[in-house]
Amino acid sequence: MRDLVSDMASCLSVGGVRITRKGKALLDVPSLNLDGPGSTLILGPNGAGKSLLLRCLHGLIVPDRGQVMQDGVPLNAERKARQGMVFQQPVLLRRSVAANLDFVLKRQGLPRSERKTRIQNLLTEGGLDGKARQSARSLSGGEAQRLAILRALALNPETLFLDEPTSALDPSATQMIERMVQRASSRGVRIVMVTHDIGQARRLAADIVMMQGGRVVEHGAAQQVLDAPESDAARRYLAGGLVT
Amino acid sequence: MIRNIVQATLIAVGLTATEASAEAPFIVVQSTTSTQNSGLLDYILPGFEAETGIDVRVVAVGTGQAIRNAINGDGDVLLVHSKPAEEKFVADGWGVQRFDVMYNDFVLVGPKSDPAQVKGGTDIVAALTAVAEAEAPFASRGDDSGTHKAEMRLWDATAAEPTAASGTWYRETGSGMGATLNVANGMGAYVLTDRATWQSFGNKDNLEVLVEGDPRLFNQYGVILVNAEKHPHVRAAAGQRFIDWLIGPHGQEAIASYKLDGQQLFFPNAD
Amino acid sequence: MQNFATEFNAAMALILNGDAELWAIVLLSLKVSLFAVLISALIGMPLGAALAVARFPGRRVLIVLMNALMGLPPVVVGLLVYLMLSRSGPLGVLELLYTPTAMIIAQVVLVTPIIAALTRQVIEMLAEEYSEQLRSLGVSRLSSVPVLLWDARLALVTALLAGFGRAIAEVGAVIIVGGNINHVTRVMTTTIALETSKGNLALALALGAILIGIAVAVTAMVSTLSLRAEQEGLRHA
């Protein structure tokens, strides 16, 4: 899996981003820097704007104001192509497992033999050996989400965004996915992941972005945010989260 | 597998293409439903095709539509049965010359119950007058065909004004002879038809011939070559060959020998 | 009508004994309609898919128009195609009137809106599901069209069958532009019309029975093939 490593740690930053719908600010982030390697987890209650922020970072939504910068340059198509995204509900093509991966590899213009090797490596990485020819739509929830992650990894991303990828999965499926995320991170892929699960944040995060009401209420090293939150909002959320 | 479907389709297409390219010389004859529905053309055409190698493609529509199609240049030969319209066609320059080919006659067909009491008569005008007075259902072609034109000429000789009664006892089907006979059978209506179509019609059921033999029921067929001066693409040589054959001894004999249930349907009368 | 049963049986015997003339008519029907559906699919599917994903002013109007065209009266189409192909019409020099090609053209006009409209519907639903994912993978709106068409292939088979059903059962257009010429442009439906007008109702009905049988057979065949294609496609991918 050497080919998945990107050797330069990227720096994503947000400047004055604002999204307003019907006079209500859904997202209002004056400044946010996600630099260095490692995994950032975005935490917060429903409607906090976590998914919206993720989509802005990935360029799926263009904010009404402000912009997303990558390494000091506004996000462009070339850099976007080196971002992968995994959605809460995996959207798999109505094709075989292998064809879902091949779809991405073909677009990179790789020759057939190389694609075949890459597909095999990816399937092994995701624990999907032997499922290559199965219909992607017939996979279990956990397998489907693993395939979605593999497909994002097939892009050789410098950044991998994940939007609550385990929210619908049981603990063992969740664990497999967390391991995949950890392995990707250790290979140098910058991880930005939205979650509800405080335990998951503790397990994966290097730093944590805490959101509420479309704003970033706290951003800091994981341990500090989780154990000694500075804002009331973060404290309340964590208290509620720990109770449930 | 999807490739197989496409392949199968392409083969089907290929066959179409081959057929089109290996085409024998042919002419298009705009004719009327009576010549086709009676089986006459199916009977005589193989003789012509064997003799000349020319394939005759018949488009069978009403006389009015056949003439319009010919004016548009969509036929080489016109074989229809409405002498005034045919003569106008030639006079307007669309046709070269008109030849008599054959004749038969129209008959008044109606329900066996015969509400207008016309059965056995030989005066068609009197019969139509009786139908109009009884307001008995009458099915008309209403499609500007040769039969329709003949029917209108006969009504003109009566005092009745059937078109004023259209939709009540007078029903215009706007369809071919056979379809109109089907309608007449369904509603127990009187109907004027050429004898050939009637003879070969398979759904007579409750209908029978009630009035026949009036000289005014004479039905003359004519043939005309479409004028190549108006439509240069007309296959004039082949078309003329067909006309020569039709009004010559071979064609005339063929027409005379066509019989259905032992009855002759068309009577050749070329000069 | 008393000899209806015997006549019907005679007609069925004609069919079962492989009467050459009858089967030539059946074959021509299939050729014309299959070819018409093929062309309509090549036009209608990309068109429908493009309408599903593209966003431009007037798109709604176009969709409404296309849906309305699904109900085009065959006779009107036949008349329009006749006027185009007649020697006095703009395309008269092509000498296509009264040929199978003319019938294919008329059926393409009838079938393309059906395939395009059904494709639009199917693709629009799929595009909604795929939209974010495809954009995330860097697939632009227009280049998503082939992806969506391929992934909707099973639903699109139904659109093809709907088009085929319309084509093979249609009589009003082909009788005008084909002329119902024996051995040249006579197909199942025009034969049925002819036999009906001859009053041979039993024969017409027997021919109708074959027509229905063929429609069922083609539908069953295509459904089976597409199902197998789905399974095989997965094994080879």
From TrEMBL, chain A:
Entry protein name = ABC transporter ATP-binding protein
Recorded GO molecular functions are: ATP binding; ATP hydrolysis activity
PANTHER family xrefs: AMINO ACID ABC TRANSPORTER, ATP-BINDING PROTEIN-RELATED, SPERMIDINE/PUTRESCINE IMPORT ATP-BINDING PROTEIN POTA
Q: Which residues form the ABC transporter domain?
A: 12-238
This protein's record includes keyword ATP-binding: yes
Q: Does the keyword ATP-binding apply?
A: yes
Looking up PROSITE patterns in the UniProt record yields:
ABC_TRANSPORTER_1 (PS00211), ABC_TRANSPORTER_2 (PS50893)
Q: Which domain of life is it from?
A: Bacteria
Keyword field: ATP-binding, Nucleotide-binding, Transport
From TrEMBL, chain B:
Q: List, for all copies, the residue spans of the domain called PBP.
A: 21-248
Q: Does the keyword Signal apply?
A: yes
The record's section on InterPro entries has: ABC-Tungstate_binding (IPR052738), PBP_domain (IPR024370)
Q: Where is the signal peptide?
A: 1-22
User: What's the domain of life for this entry?
Assistant: Bacteria
Q: Name one Pfam family in it.
A: PBP_like_2
Which keywords label this protein? Signal
Concerning PANTHER family, the annotation shows: EXTRACELLULAR TUNGSTATE BINDING PROTEIN
Protein name, as recorded: Sulfate transporter
Q: Which species?
A: Ruegeria profundi
UniProtKB/TrEMBL annotation, chain C:
Q: Which Pfam families match?
A: BPD_transp_1
A biological process term (GO) from this entry: transmembrane transport
Family indicated by similarity: Belongs to the binding-protein-dependent transport system permease family.
| Domain of life of the organism encoding this protein | Bacteria
* Record-given protein name: ABC transporter permease
Membrane topology qualifier: Multi-pass membrane protein
- UniProtKB keywords: Membrane, Transmembrane, Transmembrane helix, Transport
Q: ABC transmembrane type-1 domain spans which residues? A: 26-222
Where found, per UniProt? Answer: Cell membrane
Q: What residue ranges are annotated as transmembrane? A: 22-54, 61-85, 97-118, 201-227
A GO CC annotation recorded here is:
plasma membrane
